[in-house]
Design a protein that fits this description.
The complex is a heterotrimer of chains A (about 100), B (about 120) and C (about 240). Helix content of chain B is about 75%, strand content about 0%. Chain B has 4 helices and no strands. Chain B has one domain: Fumarate reductase/succinate dehydrogenase, transmembrane subunit (3 helical TM bundles of succinate and fumarate reductases). In chain B, helix 1 packs across helix 3. Chain C is about 30% helix and about 15% strand. In chain C, the strands form 2 sheets. A 5-stranded mixed beta sheet of chain C has the order 2-1-5-3-4. A two-stranded antiparallel ribbon of chain C has the order 6-7. Chain C starts with a strand and ends in a 9-residue tail after the last helix. The chains are: A mainly alpha (about 100), B mainly alpha (about 120), C alpha+beta (about 240). At the B-C interface, helix 1 and helix 3 of B face helix 3, helix 8 and helix 9 of C.
Amino acid sequence: MGEAGWWVLQRATGILLVLPVGVHLFAQATGAVDLTVRFVSDLALLVLVVLHSLPGLRTMVHDYVPDSRLRVWAERLLLLGGAALVGYGAWGLWKFFA
Amino acid sequence: MGLRFEVRRPAYPLSWPRLHRAGVWARRLQRVSGLVLVAFAVWHVFQVVGAAQDRARLAAMVSTLYHPAFIGLVLAALGFHTLNGLRTVLLDLGLLGSQRQVGAILAAALGTVLLVAAALGWRLR
Amino acid sequence: MTATERAVRIARTASDGRRYFQTFRVPCGPRTTVLDALLYIHRQLDRTLAFRYACRQAMCGTCGVRVNGVERLACYTLLGAVPGRVVTVEPLRHLPVIRDLVVDFGPFFLAWAAVKPAFTPADQSRAEPAQIPPADPDRQAIDRHRECISCGLCYSACDVVGSRPSFPGPAALNHALCLVLDRRDGAGPDRLRAVDGPDGCWACRGLLACSDVCPKGLAPSGAIEKLKRLIAFGRRWDGVAV
């Protein structure tokens, strides 16, 4: 994905995140949200948080890691970590709400 | 669409700029708040998975989450990151001129303070 | 020091290349500028002081310096308006210092060259010059970014320039946008490709320091955001086609 793609991904996920964050905080504060809705919203929140943080962390890698080969490996590590967190978190959410 | 938002101001007057480099500080805070939120998100995921397996850990997680200091820290990071992020998106889309950013940054900071105050007020009621 | 004097602390270069600060007392009237102070010091106190100036009316961009850490044109900064007890004058950042306040603009213009800065006519067969009337929306979009005087203040103010030498800088990217928006120019797509990439316009972190210091009221940060939109969305934006 080119630089433009990462830029659009970060902006789009940032905007989309507002709704699941709002639902999550509202549900925490009041408990007045259906469990199925909470599960779907929390799953979306997890995915969007990871997708939103990846471009930002990647930008920090670009800014603070001068070696280009290290940068490539750091990016791959970020992608792997993000995918692992989504998988682990989705499984945990399923178990939590089941 | 962006024509009326990007104002060309005249050459600067013979006075001193206000809040010089506010954009630099906003960007630094955006990164710091982002890192706080990433750390919180990773911690929270592990706590939720742990609570799903052992309900006793759920009480511990909730107790930490509802601690006023924790609420203050996380919501301060969330509030500023969201509001400043919104400012960035408006700037990126040309909906807010780059000469109007000092006011927008101050608005984001004020919004964050109000959000944290409201949350702590709710928690400590 | 009398009430109509100010202490002016200037970055100097010794004969062995060592950098140090020297403080002078300079008369300060209601219309005295920093450039007036430098000229006074040069004529009355120290003939070895090195600095640049030309038009003395914020048209040429030659007298760019940092005053109390803020990039300013010396000719268009009132000495009396500078806050604090001491006025500190330093050379611009990110450019090699030749002596005192004089810097080498070589890297600045090398960065300029990296964005294909020359106008390339789209229609080489024209006998008469192509025109865009002032009322044309394309012209209005370009006008907001025109008349850069290459003073280098934005280049100095930008932290990304300092940390990433291959970043062209706000002035070069602002100039690139002017040409990209100009429908008489035939090298728009090539120019967008030149500024694409992690060290091109995408290296801009939206710090906005460039727009803070531009003496011509341009918004280089806005120009960079427009370049990003043109690359990302590749269609009409602000009513202007690529």
